[in-house]
Amino acid sequence: MEKVFESYSDIVSVDDIMRMLSIGKSSVYGLLKSNQIKHVRVGRKYIIPKRSVIDFINGICYNNTG
Q1: What is the pLDDT of residues 9-36, one digit of tens each?
Q2: Model pTM?
Q3: Confidence (pLDDT) at 38
Q4: To 5 degrees, how large is the angle CA 17–CA 14–CA 20?
Q5: pLDDT of residue 60
Q6: What is the largest distance, in Å, between two alpha-carbon atoms of the chain?
Q7: Closest CA to 46 of 10, 5, 13
């Protein structure tokens, strides 16, 4: 999974996540607000590790098997 996102830096933006997951901005904010994608909020800015997005995707894949 890491190879798919290797062009992204270790810290990604909301716009990056929109492209990574092919979803809209409100969906990204929903994932952040529900803490499904781990992040740190500094003032109005979100600090989002790329690893958190990968972990989110892996969690969906593992939860939907079986």
Answers
A1: 999 999 999 999 999 999 999 999 999 9
A2: 0.88
A3: 97
A4: 10
A5: 86
A6: 41
A7: 13
Burial class (CB in 10 A: 0-12, 13-18, 19+), 14: middle
Strands across the sheet with 11-12, in order? 11-12, 45-49, 40-42
Q: What tokens were used for 22?
A: 């092919």
Residue type, 45: K
Write the burial class of residue 11 (CB in 10 Å: 0-12 exposed, 13-18 middle, 19+ buried): middle
Strand partners, 52: none
List, in order of start, the domains of the chain with CATH numbers. 2-63 (1.10.10)
Pair type for strands 11-12 and 40-42: unpaired
